[in-house]
Amino acid sequence: VLAEAIAAGRTARQILTRKAFENAIAVVMAEGGSTNAVLHLLAIAHAAEVPLTIDDFETIRGKVPVLCDLSPSGRFVTTDYHAAGGVPQVLKMLLVHGLIHGDALTITGKTIAEVLADVPEEPPGDQEVIRPWSNPMYAQGHLAILKGNLATEGGVAKITGLKSAKITGPARVFNREEDSIKAIFDGKIQAGDVVIIRYEGPKGGPGMREMLSPTSALIGAGLGGSVGLITDGRFSGATHGMVVGHVAPEAAVGGGIALVQEGDTVTIDADQRLLHMDVDDAELEKRRAAWSPPPPNYERGVLAKYARLVGSAARGAVTD
Questions:
Q1: Residue 236 catalytic?
Q2: Are 159 and 270 a contacting pair, CB within 8 Å?
Q3: What is d(CA 52, CA 55) in angstroms, rounded to the nearest whole number?
Q4: What is the pLDDT of residues 9-47, one digit of tens each?
Q5: What's the number of CA atoms in the CB half-sphere (13 Å) around residue 281?
Q6: Measured distance CA(81)–CA(223) in Å, rounded
Q7: Contact criterion met (CB below 8 Å) for 228 and 268
Q8: β pairing state of 166-174 and 194-197
Q9: Are 257 and 151 a contacting pair, CB within 8 Å?
Q10: Among 39, 121, 270, 275, which lies 20 to 30 A Cα-Cα from 58?
Q11: Nearest to 56, CA basis, from 92, 12, 20
Q12: Rounded to an integer, what distance in angstroms lies between the CA atom of residue 198 and that of residue 204?
């Protein structure tokens, strides 16, 4: 197919249109896909010079139901999904209900609608991986963009499959991933706490380290449903629970997450899409005036260059 596309002169820029990105976001929402889709799609759109913002994810989330019962928050895995009809089945359901653009071009030279012409409008009745349209897993998408004085540019949270959509508790602040893991293993994190892991963003990491280990440690300690976690790092697709990543601006540039202090009352509210510390503006300004960036983790080489160039996660953590 790729050779045929090259022979026909079909280029990536012809395919990567605004409509294509909206389609991709809709599919991620319907599948219950990874938080990293936000980061990657923003970066790809930037490279393709297609206007796309983090707020577009929230707009599409409100329209698209979660149709798939997939791990880690669901019961089934990718091979089950494929056997049930996979991406073409979900695309057809979204197309029938007007939630994707059928005229978007694919690498085959056909439009989405043409490629899906022979796919049934509803999934097979003998499987439970892909729900019928009338009975979705959730009425709205699972990847929410949370904002507040902790994340003025936004943070990304998976908000489906949670025991509670809101947690308010004392901040437990860590400036590196390893310190948070040690505290969890040492039994120093309690139910109701909100763990803050900062200076792990695009500049601070550098490279926006994946926080799978702390979330796994919380689940292993039986705290997965009762402890919040906020980070300017990112998560694996396997992460679930009351966790918010990609917080921007990141700590390394003096974002709100850099100003949180141990014991501050912090709220994660999925329903209100809110990420807030209960600290008044005057106090935050005092803290901001007193804040200075820590020394970089790398002062020479490729990672030092990357840290100097990379931008906000809310715009895809791109370097140009």
A1: yes
A2: yes
A3: 8
A4: 999 999 999 999 999 999 999 999 989 999 999 999 999
A5: 1
A6: 29
A7: yes
A8: parallel
A9: yes
A10: 121
A11: 20
A12: 8
